[in-house]
Amino acid sequence: MEIQTDTAIRNILHIRQINKV
Length: 21
Prior knowledge:
The chain is 90% helix and 0% strand.
């Protein structure tokens, strides 16, 4: 299940970057 957590973290970081711009 580590892959799912890694994907979730990546999605969160990606969303945060979009909101930052």
